[in-house]
Write a sequence for this structure.
């Protein structure tokens, strides 16, 4: 089965949806998404979106905070582009109906998070991502030129090797898409393909991310020949609720922005011992400090103390967190709650330029799947929704300014099922999923060593081989495709970490405890050279 579109966007978070909306006046757009369109990493963003909104804050301060949090490995041009584009794009969100919290005198109620020198985080209490996603989706659904393919998962990008008459143009022609309900595979041809697939938190056993975050875009881009950069910089959010029933539920950093204190199990506040910004230090410092204390003491968690705030404030400012904690038996108005770090955000990804273009023609990447250079060695809190918005805008402008010539008449091969049969051993998938995620947590976590990384590399090589065999022998299912992507992202993360022989930002390796005098800004891996 085959169909075509002007634009194919894979992913329906903030970047995918805002791009679709911007292009749909001029182009037909298909948005492919693995579950219902609302399900995305964006939906779960609690803290908010950082943007300079009011005096005394200013662009320079936001730029400096971003550079500082990123250990000065950020690309300064990118940082400037993102920070300075913020206010205008926030206006567009407001026009789309997004409601950010306001104070009694009708000013934005700006929050603060780790690494920020000012209050500059716009929020909708602790449901910021949900509010943005809901309003963008409402707008996108009203546009008849945006077609949603929900419950569909991309298998691979269509590149030159999938043409009937093979070529060496480094062009992308769309993607092969599996309909999760029927099992049918669609050849979706597009003049432009955009990866907006989000992150890969599910590579780790403990993550704040939803189940969809399996690194599909990174893995597909790698297989097609894109540059993948800086995957070693995996950000661990310092505070997820420690409770086996809570699936690493995120406890927003905005709570520390309201004066929350991290304490050891004996009640001692410890962050001042690690960083001058104390509890509001950038995330890499906080997560590492917690990891160090837990390992030293053999404790299972530290605590976050919010008891200085009254119940009414906590309930109103953090309704979801408050309710969720109560559900698991924790009353944050009365007692400090147990927290631990969990994998949260991939600062690396598919390498793109200032316009969001990848190294392959007609292929863009936006949002968490991409590596723009904004985050450097560690992302500043709440900069990611902003980055998603800004790069959607850049890509839209690039496409509208120079629309690609149609490739719809190029003859592409339909999906060839070969001799694949239905699997009779789905247990292999469950086993391998579990193995990848546990191995990444144990060997490629907050603090690394070369020995552990090499051990992880040997394991992932075996897993990749096994998954490859399975992939060719059996008809693809969503679980198998996700596992294949997850294992590839694990492999690339390990290789990036092995390649970066220094400790900087989120990459801490005890065998190379110091940063280099001149660190590589982009630590690149690609399949074909
Ligand atoms: C949080 O609310 O702590 C998450 C915000 C972010 O990751 O930027």
């Amino acid at each position: 089965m085959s169909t075509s579109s002007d634009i194919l966007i894979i992913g329906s978070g903030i970047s995918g949806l805002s791009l679709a909306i911007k292009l749909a006046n001029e182009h037909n757009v298909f948005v492919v998404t693995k579950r219902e369109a609302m399900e995305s990493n964006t939906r779960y963003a609690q803290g908010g979106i950082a943007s300079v909104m009011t005096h005394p804050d200013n662009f320079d301060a936001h730029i400096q905070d971003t550079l500082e949090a990123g250990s000065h490995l950020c690309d300064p041009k990118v940082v400037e582009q993102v920070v300075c584009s913020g206010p205008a794009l926030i206006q567009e969100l407001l026009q789309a109906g997004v409601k950010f919290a306001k104070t009694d005198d009708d000013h934005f109620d700006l929050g603060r998070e780790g690494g920020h020198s000012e209050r500059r985080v716009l929020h909708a209490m602790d449901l910021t991502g949900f509010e943005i996603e809901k309003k963008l989706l409402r707008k996108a659904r009203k546009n008849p030129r945006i077609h949603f393919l929900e419950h569909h998962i991309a298998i691979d990008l269509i590149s030159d090797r999938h043409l009937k008459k093979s070529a060496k143009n480094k062009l992308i022609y769309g993607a092969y898409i599996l309909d999760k309900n029927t099992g049918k595979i669609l050849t979706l041809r597009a003049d432009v393909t955009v990866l907006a697939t989000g992150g890969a938190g599910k590579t780790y056993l403990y993550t704040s991310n939803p189940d969809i975050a399996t690194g599909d875009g990174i893995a597909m881009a790698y297989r097609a020949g894109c540059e993948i950069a800086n995957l070693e910089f995996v950000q661990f959010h310092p505070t997820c609720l420690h409770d086996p029933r809570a699936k690493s539920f995120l406890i927003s950093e905005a709570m520390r922005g309201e004066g929350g204190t991290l304490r050891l199990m004996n009640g001692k506040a410890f962050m001042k011992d690690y960083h001058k910004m104390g509890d509001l230090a950038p995330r890499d410092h906080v997560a590492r400090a917690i990891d160090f204390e837990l390992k030293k003491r053999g404790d299972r968690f530290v605590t976050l103390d919010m008891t200085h705030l009254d119940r009414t404030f906590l309930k109103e400012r953090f309704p979801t967190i408050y309710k969720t904690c109560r559900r698991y038996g924790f009353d944050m108005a009365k007692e400090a709650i147990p927290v631990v770090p969990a994998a949260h955000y991939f600062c690396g990804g598919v390498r793109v330029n200032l316009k969001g273009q990848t190294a392959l023609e007609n292929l863009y990447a936006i949002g968490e799947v991409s590596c723009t250079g904004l985050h450097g060695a560690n992302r500043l809190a709440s900069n990611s929704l902003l980055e998603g918005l800004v790069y959607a805008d850049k890509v839209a402008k690039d496409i509208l300014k120079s629309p690609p010539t149609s490739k719809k008449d190029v003859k592409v091969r339909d999906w060839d099922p070969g001799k694949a049969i239905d699997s009779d051993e789905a247990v292999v998938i469950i086993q391998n999923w579990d193995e990848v995620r546990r191995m990444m947590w144990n060997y490629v976590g907050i603090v690394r060593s070369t020995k552990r990384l090499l051990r992880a590399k040997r394991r992932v090589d075996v897993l990749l081989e096994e998954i490859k065999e399975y992939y060719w022998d059996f008809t693809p299912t969503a679980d198998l495709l996700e596992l294949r992507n997850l294992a590839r992202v694990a492999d690339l993360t390990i290789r990036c970490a092995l390649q970066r022989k220094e400790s900087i930002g989120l990459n801490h390796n005890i065998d190379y405890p110091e940063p280099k005098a001149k660190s590589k800004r982009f630590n690149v891996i690609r399949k074909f050279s």
Summary: The pocket of succinic acid is lined by residues 45-47, 252-254, 345, 381-382, 384 (CB under 6 Å). The radius of gyration is 22 Å. DSSP finds 13 helices and 19 strands in the chain. Residues 237-343 form a domain with the Flavocytochrome C3; Chain A, domain 1 fold (CATH 3.90.700.10).
